Amino acid sequence: MDVCLSQEAEQIWIAPALEWKRWPDGILVYNTESGNTHVLNPASTALLEFLAEGPKSDFEIAHRLAIQNSLQLDDALQTHVKGLLENLADLGIAESVS
């Protein structure tokens, strides 16, 4: 199986100031800039927690999630991560800066 990892045109992502609340059923994040609150699934939570540490490329995020979840780092995972990042950006809790 050929794995073609694309590091071309990587985007750098940041997270705005967020407050986190963990509940038995999930995670809530409050965006202090917009005043919006969001419920996150486990994949989005892991991604956003890593992003909250500082600016990261979409490749770095995919690599970290692959390691944490024993997944193969391939184009399918990178595409999925980019989709998650775009969804989080639509919600205003992630932002592409490049």
Report on the architecture of this protein.
- The protein has about 100 residues and is an alpha+beta fold.
- It has a single domain (about 10-95), classed as Alpha-Beta Complex (Outer Surface Protein A, domain 3), CATH 3.90.930.
- About 40% of the residues lie in helices and about 25% in strands.
- The strands form two sheets. A three-stranded antiparallel beta sheet has the order 5-1-6. Strands 2-3-4 form a three-stranded antiparallel beta sheet.
- α2 (about 60-70) crosses α3.
- The longest helix is centred in the C-terminal third of the chain and has 17 residues, at about 75-90.
- The chain is globular.
- It starts with 11 loop residues before the first strand and ends with a strand.
- About 20% of the residues are buried.
- The model has no long low-confidence stretch (mean pLDDT about 90).
Number of strands: 6
If classified by CATH, what would the architecture be? Alpha-Beta Complex
- How far apart the termini lie comes to 32 Å
- The CATH topology assignment is Outer Surface Protein A, domain 3
Q: What is the rounded Rg?
A: 14 Å
Strand portion, in percent?
15-25%
| Shape, principal axes of CA atoms | globular
How confident is the prediction overall: mean pLDDT?
88
Count of helices? 3
**Total domain units:** 1
Regions with little confidence, pLDDT below 50 for 5+ residues: none
Structural class: alpha+beta
Spell out the helices and strands N to C.
EEEEHEHHE
